[in-house]
Design a protein that fits this description.
heterodimer, A: 314 residues, mainly alpha, ABC transporter involved in vitamin B12 uptake, BtuC, two-stranded antiparallel sheet, 14 helices, globular, B: 287 residues, 12 helices, disordered C terminus
Chain lengths: 314, 287
């Protein structure tokens, strides 16, 4: 992304930031807040899954613990910025305790191990906190969607920015090297374990913030709701479909996911999950670069067709 | 305590049968089929509706098995067959991703078709128990244990005595050498996958007797994969004892920590094994 790209990025952000001054329709704002949360979760997952090659099916645990801690501290009168930080820190703590051992597994088993951890977290929290947490009246009086909108936007921009900075740095090169060939990276002197841990830490911190935003935005939710496995499946689906290991891929995927789920919101069941699952399988099989690479793919196909037409190749 | 252990053992037998299906494709083709649980639940629905139509669940097993076999073949043809070119780690990872998508697909289609309600198959004999030595033995659990034993032995004879079974073992040991010996490797993979999905029909019926809904497939898959990891890769004969072991551990944990944490126990055991023994619990084949 050069200067023009940066300017375009800034323009888009400025445009999104102006939305609440024009639109007072709560539905649109809530939808956009959900989109920001999806972007946070997907982009932070992408750092670990897309750039480091460690596909995690357990990000719901980090998202959930961030939501839980932020919510508990916030409703006990801690200012929301501090509560958010504590939520993020707790996600990092959880990653240190339960996520790091998973990195010891062969990378092919990492998804299953993290999935098991996510299920452990979901069941345990469901047992410990069986009741929903609702806001008390003093919080409801001061509830303001626009504040939440800007906070969510801020964290989303921070997340995308952080991942961008990391990926463009020396660290990012090390992460990509691990993804492409772990043994070769180790042989070239990359401390693979250290970089994998770093990637997991940053990823869980950001997704913990996402959970905090979720807890700050929702008026009432079951404490185990952010621990549900759908929060672990969501970033996997959106990142793969948008484009694994690209900065914009997860954003595109999140927009598609939210758009589809709103489109089919009135129909019974989960049509958007069906559409996404089929697309996911097709992407894994035929389009490993996701939607972001579809342009190149089509050009490649056109090129081969043209070559065949004039009789070169094959 | 004794009664809890009895239930634990019977659950363990069920876990053993679930794990057989997973172990078969994992051991032979290095495919990790996350959707196995969803296939089981599909089978449960099939036998539920056949029961509603007046067919006894035990009689419907062959029908369900045939249906699942065809479903497995079709799924393999469409998706998994494209992964054969990858080396082992790539196979595990990509099959895991594809079956993850497949699981979401089957689960949400099942929710759309049959709602998320919990159901169970309730024939007249479902509550019957046999008393022995002061303990109660549910009739259906006895049947499931018997099925497990029969299944293990028939699988053993299939793999060690029949020509096709032997070719499956040969392919699992070294598929290049097997293909040089004139074995059609692709067809072997195809049929083994079909058989592994077909094996889901038996746990399907017994889970049907308990209770099921479209989204519980993944929980049963988890039981299965824990047992597979416990028994070691490619070790089909270790699956049944490992299943019983998990059942007993769960029973003890119910006794100590209470019923809500039963699901957690197996998963914790699984994570500990994966972390402490990243190369597998048994030294046979590398994971």
């Amino acid at each position: 992304m050069g200067k023009r790209g940066l300017a375009g990025f800034g323009l888009v952000i400025a445009f999104i930031a102006l939305v609440p001054t024009v639109v007072t329709f709560e539905y649109v704002l809530n939808l956009l807040i959900m989109l920001f949360i999806y972007v946070i979760v997907a982009e932070s997952w992408n750092l670990l899954g897309g750039f480091t090659g460690q596909v995690s099916l357990g990000h719901s645990a980090f998202f959930g613990i961030g939501a839980l801690i932020t919510r508990l501290l916030w409703v006990n009168h801690m200012p929301i910025p501090l509560a958010l930080l504590a939520g993020g820190a707790s996600a990092v703590g959880l990653a240190a305790i339960i996520g790091m051992p998973c990195l010891r597994m062969r990378s092919a088993y990492f998804p299953i191990g993290t999935l098991a951890l996510a299920m452990i977290a979901q069941i345990t929290i469901g047992n410990l906190f069986p009741l929903p947490g609702s806001l008390s009246s003093e919080y409801l009086v001061t509830y303001n969607t626009v504040t939440r909108y800007y906070l969510a936007l801020l964290v989303a921009v921070l997340t995308v920015g952080t991942v961008y900075r990391i990926v463009r740095s020396r660290t990012g090169l090390a992460l990509v090297a691990i993804r492409d060939d772990e043994a070769a990276a180790e042989a070239m002197g990359v401390k693979t374990m250290r970089y994998k841990v770093l990637s997991l830490m940053v990823s869980s911190l950001l997704v913990g913030f996402g959970g905090g935003i979720f807890a700050y935005h929702q008026v009432s939710f079951y404490y185990y709701a952010p621990f549900e496995l759908s929060w672990a499946f969501l970033p996997t689906l959106t990142s793969f479909i948008g484009g694994l290991g690209t900065i914009l891929g997860p954003v595109v995927g999140a927009i598609c996911f939210l758009g589809l789920s709103e489109l089919f919101a009135l129909s019974l069941g989960e049509v958007h999950i069906v559409v996404f699952a089929v697309t996911f399988i097709l992407v894994v099989l035929f389009l490993p670069g996701g939607l972001m690479s579809i342009n190149t793919k089509i050009r490649m196909m056109a090129f081969t067709l043209k070559q065949r037409a004039v009789g070169i190749g094959r | 305590m004794g009664q809890t252990l009895v239930y634990g053992l019977f659950n363990g037998a069920l876990y053993g049968i679930i794990a057989l299906g997973i172990a078969l494709v994992f051991g032979i083709m290095r495919y990790l089929n996350l959707a196995q649980g969803s296939f089981i639940i599909l089978g449960s629905y099939a036998s539920f509706f056949l029961f509603k139509a007046g067919l006894d669940p035990f009689v419907s097993i062959p029908l369900v098995a045939a249906g699942l076999f065809l479903a497995g073949i079709a799924v393999f043809k469409v998706s998994f067959s494209r992964l054969l070119v990858y080396p082992d780690p790539g196979k595990i990872k990509n099959s895991l991703l594809i079956s993850f998508g497949l699981m979401l697909l089957i689960d949400s289609l099942a929710t759309m078709a049959w709602t998320g309600d919990e159901r169970s198959i309730t024939p007249a004999y479902s509550g019957l128990t046999i008393g022995f030595a002061g303990l109660r033995f549910p009739l259906i659990s006895l049947a499931s244990a018997a099925c497990a034993v029969v299944l293990i032995f028939s699988l053993h004879f299939f793999l060690s005595r029949t020509y096709f079974g032997k070719s499956i073992v040969a392919v699992s040991q070294d598929f290049e050498a097997a293909s040089l010996m004139g074995i059609n490797v692709n067809r072997t993979f195809l049929v083994s996958f079909g058989i592994s999905v077909m094996l889901a029909s038996i746990p399907a019926v017994f889970i049907g007797f308990k209770s099921f809904s479209p989204t519980v497939g993944i929980q049963w898959f988890n039981k299965g994969i824990v047992v597979v990891m416990l028994s070691g890769l490619g070790n089909i004969y270790g699956v049944f004892p490992a299943g019983l072991f998990l059942g007993i551990i769960e029973a003890i944990s119910v006794y100590v920590f209470g019923a809500p944490y039963r699901e957690v126990t197996g998963l914790v055991v699984f994570v500990i094994i994966m972390v402490l023994f990243p190369k597998g619990l048994f030294k046979g084949q590398e994971l």
